[in-house]
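quick one before i forget lol
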Amino acid sequence: MSGVTLDGYDWFSTRELGFCLTFVRGLTPEEAFRRIGVEVLSEDEEEDEDVLGGVLRGESADGGALLVEENGYAGTMDELLRPLSAGTAVASVFRNADFDQTFVYYEDGREILGFDPQFPGDSRSGADPDRHFAEMRDLGLIAEDGEDGPETGVEAALALAERLTGVRAASDDPAEARAGLKGVLPDY
């Protein structure tokens, strides 16, 4: 997936609300929901305005599944990413309305890489934070000197999530789509 560029994520600049997108390699939305205990909503429940917190939408995507959460951060939580990434790879990109941002990448239950997309040069963490240094540099997240690059931000983090998982988000804003499963995370 080294051909992935920022161009596929230009829809992001029009987003005003926060979101969390989770790219799940090789699983269906149903399998992803089952791994993290999401209770699928019926059509009647989907229309219920009282269902607010912890709502996820799961969509089939090239290479796996995309989990979409409006104004939430569940996709960055270790207790969800460990079981979700068992035997596969998962990347999540979060941004809230205040522009706080997080990128996390897990393989087989372990956090490999985490960083703040606004400051990727200084904020890398995880079990192997330099493993994907070349991809981060190629996308402009990291400069040659290891400092923050010219393309810091969520668009580059979304492109990195696609590169690392092989899951391709739709070319349009996935938060605007309405197809797919909807469910609620218990105890969220």
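fyi The two ends are 33 Å apart (CA to CA).
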